[in-house]
Amino acid sequence: GAGVSQSPRYKVAKRGQDVALRCDPISGHVSLFWYQQALGQGPEFLTYFQNEAQLDKSGLPSDRFFAERPEGSVSTLKIQRTQQEDSAVYLCASSLGLVVTIGETQYFGPGTRLLVL
Amino acid sequence: RKEVEQDPGPFNVPEGATVAFNCTYSNSASQSFFWYRQDCRKEPKLLMSVYSSGNEDGRFTAQLNRASQYISLLIRDSKLSDSATYLCVVNRGSTLGRLYFGRGTQLTVWP
């Protein structure tokens, strides 16, 4: 079956531009996560949705970052007024159930590589 | 201090070698432990979960020491296809599934 998909796969933005990154989770998956992975580092948590509810946004680095999942399936991560330090791979992950089930597997999408010039 | 610390390597080993990776985690409330594999320019994929009793999956053995807050991964009889970055990952039960990743250990297996 289809895995997690993300679009665009690559995005080049000029500093100050707004960008929108899309994630299509595995069908039926309740939980959706966004992570940011800088070059040579492990992924860092940004935000978590349970269906359409954003239950944790503590990892968003600034108020320029905004995420939504209005119908509990597709999610969009928006970055306003991009800065060079926003350059990274943005990974989306989904899992089947409520992640209070300890150890629930998260399935990652291929990521969007964002380069801010 | 980062939540999960790993030696970034790189580890360069010949085919057939045994190689071990270690990591430590800082939060004693951590409840779930994993090793993920990430190929170059690809997404992380779950390699195996790590249980307190230790567990094995083919050539891969994972160990957890809760007292020392230490996790290990042993790869026996290395294959060329094992070349990748190995990410040590923990989850605190209190944080709704948020995963904490180490920076990863790079492995290259040469013929």
% residues in beta strands of chain A: over 45%
Give me the count of strands of chain A: 11
* Tally of DSSP helical segments of chain A: 0
What would you call the structural class of chain A?
A: mainly beta
Uncertain residue ranges of chain A: none
- Shape by Cα distribution of chain B: globular
**Tally of separate helices of chain B:** 0
Mean pLDDT of chain B: 92
Reported for the largest beta sheet of chain B, the result is: 6 strands, mixed
How many DSSP-defined strands of chain B? Answer: 11
What does this structure look like?
The complex is a heterodimer of chains A (117) and B (111). Helix content of chain A is 0%, strand content 47%. Chain A has strands at 5-7, 10-13, 19-24, 31-37, 44-50, 53-56, 65-68, 75-79, 88-95, 107-108, 112-116. In chain A, strands 2, 4, 5, 6, 9, 10 and 11 form a 7-stranded mixed β-sheet that branches. A 4-stranded antiparallel β-sheet of chain A has the order 1-3-8-7, with no helix packed on it. Chain A starts with a strand and ends with a strand. The model of chain A has no long low-confidence stretch (mean pLDDT 93). Chain B is an all-beta fold and 111 residues long. Chain B is 0% helix and 57% strand. Chain B has no helices and 11 strands. In chain B, 36% of the residues are buried. The mean pLDDT of chain B is 92. Classes of the chains: A mainly beta (117), B mainly beta (111). The A-B interface holds A 31, 33, 35, 40-45, 48, 50, 55-56, 59, 91, 95, 99-100, 102-106, 108-111 and B 4, 8, 31-32, 34, 42-46, 49, 87, 89, 91, 93, 95-104.
Provide a quick synopsis of the model.
Chain A is mainly β and 117 residues long. Chain A has strands at residues 5-7, 10-13, 19-24, 31-37, 44-50, 53-56, 65-68, 75-79, 88-95, 107-108, 112-116.
Could you name the key traits of this structure?
heterodimer, A: 117 residues, mainly beta, four-stranded antiparallel β-sheet, B: 111 residues
